[in-house]
Amino acid sequence: MDKLKLTYFDFPGGRAEPARLALHLGGIPFEDYRFAFSDFPEVRKATPLNQVPTLHINDLQVTQSDAITRYVGKLAGLYPDDYLQGLLCDEVMGALEDVNIKLGATFGMTGDDLKAARDALVTGPLPKYLRWLENQLESHGGEFFADHRLTIADLKALVCLRGLVSGKLDHIPTNLIDTAAPKLTAYLQRIGNIPAIAQYYSKFGAA
Ligand SMILES: N[C@@H](CCC(=O)N[C@@H](CS)C(=O)NCC(=O)O)C(=O)O
Q1: pLDDT, tens only, 92-127
Q2: Residue 112: enclosing H or E segment and its boundaries?
Q3: Which of 1, 52, 139, 149 has the most CB atoms less than 10 A away?
Q4: Protein residue closest via CA to atom 6 of ligand 1
Q5: Cβ atoms 206, 162 nearer than 8 A
Q6: What is the pTM of this model?
């Protein structure tokens, strides 16, 4: 069996969390290498693009969170076999990554600049993406984003959207999803309450 090592910050969210979750749900052994934010300057030196997450598969080190999540999702049985359902799964993951990138652009800002940048997201792109996601969910049957079953798209949605309204991001209201796309709130509660997921977060703490 391949030896897997996933390297990322020590917090229950962000770009490696869907892969961690998929590996746990699939019962796939891996080294869950979590490091402190203060150690990032050192850790990044040992990564190909000076970024995390990375996944080692034996001696091969791979970058790009969605590619990693897709790979481990396939190992865990959480990725559609059907090509069209795979496309719908990837589409949602790509849109969620857009949200990550838009938010990421505000990290490091402070004061009025941060407020202006976050307010602009809250009044423009974020509700648009949330409404689109709600619409995708509804048009794919209302329960899951793809394949009528739990896939990595749901894991990424849970991590990304729960983090978005966690209250830990200044100027992003905790009721943003309720206001823009209320069906997503019920969906996130439902996915978070799946016993294996609830059990995982009772161990590692939710974002
Ligand atoms: N496209 C990459 C982006 C990775 C990324 O930006 N990671 C952040 C942490 S979540 C990082 O390492 N940022 C430092 C940098 O880009 O210099 C992916 O999806 O893995």
Answers
A1: 999 999 999 999 999 999 999 999 999 999 999 999
A2: helix 111-123
A3: 52
A4: 51
A5: yes
A6: 0.97
